[in-house]
Design brief:
The chain is mainly alpha-helical. It is about 85% helix and about 0% strand. It is elongated and about 65 Å long.
Length: about 240
C-alpha cells in the first residue's frame, strides 16, 4: 500500500513537472512570436521612412533584412512542431500553438509588403524626381498599421478580446486613409500627367499598407477565436 501511494505521488510529481515544462515552452514560443512581431513593426517604419526621405540606403536595409524575418518564421515553425510532437497538447493549448503557425505566416507577409514599399521607394528614387507632395497620410497609415500589429499580438498572448476588436476598428481608419489617398492622387494625375508614374507608385504603397493592416486584423481574429472558440470575420 505504501509503495502504491509513493508511486502515485511520483506520477503526480512527474506529470506536474511535464506540465510546468510545457507551459514554459509555450511561453517561450509566444515570446519568440512577439520578438518577430517587434522586428516586423520596425521594418514597416523603416520602409516608409525610406520613402519619405527618398533614402536608398534605408530601403536596401529593409530589403536585405527580410532574410531575418524569414529565418525567424522557420525557427518558430519548428518550435510549434516540436511542441505538438513532444507534448501532445490538448484543447486550448493546441489551438494556441496552431494559431502561432498562422500568425507567423501573417507576420512574414507583412514583412514582404514592407519590402515591396522599400522597393517602390527605390523605383521613385531612380526617377530622380522629388516627391510630388510631402507625405502625410502614408506615414499615418504606417503608424496605425504598426500599432495594429502590436495590439493584435498582445491580444493573442494575453487573451484580450477587447483589444482584438480595437485592432478591427483601427483597420477601418486605415481603409479610410487608403481611400483618401486614392482620391487625392487621382486628382494629381488628372491635373498633371507628368505625376502619373510617381502617383501610381504611391498608390501601390498605400495598398501595401492597407494589406498590412488586413494581416494584423487576421492575427486579431486568431486571438478572438482562442478565447471564444468562435470565428469572427473582422475584415468586412
Amino acid at each position: 500500500m505504501h509503495n502504491t501511494i509513493e508511486t502515485l505521488r511520483g506520477d503526480r510529481t512527474m506529470a506536474g513537472s511535464i506540465r510546468h515544462n510545457f507551459h514554459q515552452s509555450l511561453e517561450s514560443l509566444q515570446q519568440e512570436i512577439l520578438r518577430m512581431g517587434s522586428i516586423v513593426e520596425q521594418v514597416i517604419a523603416k520602409a516608409v521612412e525610406s520613402l519619405a526621405k527618398l533614402d536608398s540606403k534605408i530601403a536596401n536595409e529593409v530589403i536585405e533584412g527580410d532574410t531575418v524575418v524569414d529565418e525567424l518564421e522557420l525557427q518558430i515553425e519548428d518550435q510549434c512542431l516540436k511542441l505538438i510532437a513532444t507534448q501532445q497538447p490538448m484543447a486550448k493549448d493546441l489551438r494556441k500553438i496552431a494559431a502561432g503557425f498562422k500568425i507567423i505566416t501573417d507576420l512574414e507577409r507583412i514583412a514582404d509588403y514592407s519590402v515591396d514599399i522599400a522597393r517602390t521607394a527605390n523605383r521613385i528614387i531612380a526617377t530622380g524626381q522629388p516627391l510630388i507632395k510631402p507625405l502625410i497620410d502614408i506615414p499615418r497609415m504606417a503608424e496605425l498599421a504598426q500599432n495594429m500589429v502590436k495590439q493584435a499580438l498582445d491580444a493573442y498572448v494575453h487573451g484580450d478580446v477587447k483589444l482584438a476588436y480595437a485592432v478591427a476598428e483601427a483597420d477601418d481608419q486605415v481603409d479610410q486613409l487608403h481611400n483618401q489617398i486614392f482620391r487625392e492622387l487621382l486628382v494629381f494625375m488628372m491635373e498633371n500627367p507628368r505625376t502619373i508614374t510617381q502617383a501610381t507608385y504611391l498608390l501601390f504603397v498605400s495598398r501595401y499598407l492597407e494589406r498590412i493592416a488586413d494581416h494584423a486584423t487576421n492575427i486579431a481574429e486568431e486571438a478572438i477565436y482562442l478565447e471564444t472558440g468562435e470565428r469572427k470575420e473582422l475584415n468586412d
